[in-house]
């Protein structure tokens, strides 16, 4: 097997194991924790995911393009500049995030875990993105396995054999440990790369130029991720924290598709799309775009069919009446992730060309559509309203990006 093929196989295997671990974790949490605790875990995870954008400001979207254009001896200066920006953002947003607990959106009992995990996740995420950019996908996958995979396996095993470990604090402690190990590995690899340019003075003007590009993208990302944050809180308000546990379970199962596509498809193809466009290689751009389309559709279709076949046996095994009672939510959560996944095809095609405006506009508009649509649907189908509203929002995003790609992409790149 050629070296590149072997690396890709190992990468997909690692991501697959990580995916399976997260899949097992959500099921064992549903099996051994009360639905209310699973609902709290869901609120905590989406709040951390959303807060990550405040600590990073999506500045990597600018840094990634710059690194691909620069020589290695310039990388240190770029990373130093990004680190300086992060320190500023930490000093602003970490204190502000305490409002989540002051307002009672999350209980103070998880505040310590929240801030520690948030910082560790941000640091490991940024290092992983850098590694993917410089074609070190394998190590990025290993980091992901540490921060999202191995600890989930350990916790799952502990909860299976020892009833006294069936506690949310054990889960959050294991998450912290996994993220810390991933950070150590990533930092060690960065040291090995011998990147130079660290002595360069911080270029605040370059940071400012980057923010002009990153902040509009951030607004779009916050709107998009807002959909996956507001939905949990809104669902809990329309139903209950216990019923939210069922929604978290079904959304967790469905969103496994996104993790798999990100590992096996997107992480490999989108840097090549950027490079092909930068080099004005129209043939390579079309080839990679076709691969993105076919692989996304094939993996999504196979995933959806498999889940529809196994969902009933899985819910029966859980032996929790609440989850079986609300299993009609599952097709909606699956449709949400399918629409999201397919929408990433025109998304990356636009992003690779630097056509950010349609991405920004579609994401912001989707949140503006989601809110009134969900509010209207909640009067008739309060339990289904949130996932139905998400389906409308992501269908809107998909259509907007497809039309933008057709309208704005030069014919030779299509």
From TrEMBL:
Location in the cell: Cell membrane
Keywords: Cell membrane, Membrane, Transmembrane, Transmembrane helix
Lipid bilayer topology: Multi-pass membrane protein
Keyword Zinc: no
Transmembrane segments: 12-33, 39-62, 83-102, 108-124, 144-162, 168-188, 209-228, 248-270, 291-311, 331-351, 363-381, 387-406
Tagged with keyword Iron: no
Protein name: Lipopolysaccharide biosynthesis protein
The organism of origin for this protein: Pseudomonas kulmbachensis
Lineage start: Bacteria, Pseudomonadati, Pseudomonadota, Gammaproteobacteria, Pseudomonadales
């Amino acid at each position: 097997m050629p070296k590149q093929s072997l690396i890709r196989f190992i990468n997909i295997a690692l991501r697959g194991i990580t995916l399976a671990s997260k899949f097992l974790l959500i099921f064992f949490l549903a099996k051994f924790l009360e639905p209310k605790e699973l609902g709290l875990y869901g609120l905590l995870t989406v709040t951390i995911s959303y807060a990550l954008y405040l600590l990073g400001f999506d500045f990597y979207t600018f840094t990634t393009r710059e690194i691909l254009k620069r020589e290695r001896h310039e990388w240190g200066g770029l990373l130093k500049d990004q680190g300086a920006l992060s320190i500023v953002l930490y000093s602003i947003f970490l204190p502000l995030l305490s409002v989540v607990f002051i307002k009672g959106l999350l209980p103070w009992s998880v505040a310590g875990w929240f801030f520690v995990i948030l910082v560790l996740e941000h640091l490991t995420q940024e290092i992983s993105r850098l590694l993917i950019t410089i074609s070190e996908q394998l190590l990025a996958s290993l980091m992901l396995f540490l921060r999202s995979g191995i600890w989930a396996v350990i916790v799952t095993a502990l909860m299976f054999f020892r009833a006294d470990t069936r506690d949310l604090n054990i889960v959050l402690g294991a998450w912290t440990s996994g993220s810390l190990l991933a950070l150590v590995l990533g930092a060690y690899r960065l040291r090995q790369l011998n990147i130079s340019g660290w002595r360069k003075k911080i270029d605040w003007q370059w940071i400012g130029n980057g923010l002009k590009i990153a902040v509009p993208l951030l607004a779009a990302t916050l709107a998009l991720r807002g959909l996956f944050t507001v939905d949990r809180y809104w669902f809990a308000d329309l139903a209950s924290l216990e019923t939210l546990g069922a929604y978290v379970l079904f959304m967790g199962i469905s969103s496994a598709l996104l993790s798999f596509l990100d590992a096996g498809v997107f992480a490999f193809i989108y840097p090549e799309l950027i490079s092909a466009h930068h080099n004005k290689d129209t043939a390579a751009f079309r080839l990679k775009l076709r691969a993105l389309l076919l692989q996304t559709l094939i993996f999504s279709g196979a995933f959806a069919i498999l889940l529809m076949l196994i969902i009933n046996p899985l819910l029966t095994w859980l032996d929790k009446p609440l989850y079986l009672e609300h299993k009609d939510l599952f097709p909606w959560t699956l449709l949400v992730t399918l629409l999201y996944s397919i929408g990433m095809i025109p998304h990356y095609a636009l992003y690779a060309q630097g056509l950010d405006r349609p991405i920004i506009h579609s994401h912001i508009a989707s949140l503006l559509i989601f809110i009134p649509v969900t509010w209207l649907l909640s009067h008739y189908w309060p339990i289904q309203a949130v996932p139905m509203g998400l389906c409308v929002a992501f269908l809107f995003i998909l259509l907007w990006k497809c039309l933008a790609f057709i309208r704005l992409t030069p014919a030779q790149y299509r």
